[in-house]
Amino acid sequence: MAVARQGTARRGGGRGYAAGYGGGISCVPYARQATGMAISGNGGQWWYNAAGVYARGNRPEVGSILAFPGSGGMRAGHVAVVERVVSSREILIHHANWGGPGIRRGSIMRGVSVVDASPNNDWSQVRVQVGYSNENYGRTYAVQGFIHNRPDATGGMMLAGTGLRGGTAQASAQSFEEVAEAPVTRRSARR
Predict the structure, then answer these.
(1) Distance of CA 157 to the CA centre of its chain
(2) To which H or E segment does residue 49 belong?
(3) pTM of the shown model
């Protein structure tokens, strides 16, 4: 597949298409193939299913997954791979099965511009380039964050009274108290 120039979305070739999906591929198997990440579930479940396994955050990195929750026309959510960080407010992604003018569902797109539309520049809302146009962006979509292709160093520990995850050093630096940690279960131990 040829990499598209900045701001110019291009469809990928026939490589990587999943059988049984009308000749195309959906976003989840494409993201797994492109990154090697082993996360289960629909795109909208990846953010939660990555907890304790992969590092997560609200800043893009090349090779990380941009995770969209389920909403409206994309009830199962969506995932895309960060191809390039252009600026603090723009990234280029590659992904599959995102429709648009002249784009067939199940297609692979590379070099697709995504802009941070959040008021606080925290990547909680984005707009995605529409079709092959360099100027047109679609509606604003909520974003869960970025799943980074490296282990979660926090071990998935939850901090008391917050939705934050972090280790003991982060907890004490932010004046949080660790109150309990769920035991780690191993599948082999249950057999």
Answers:
(1) 21
(2) helix 46-49
(3) 0.71
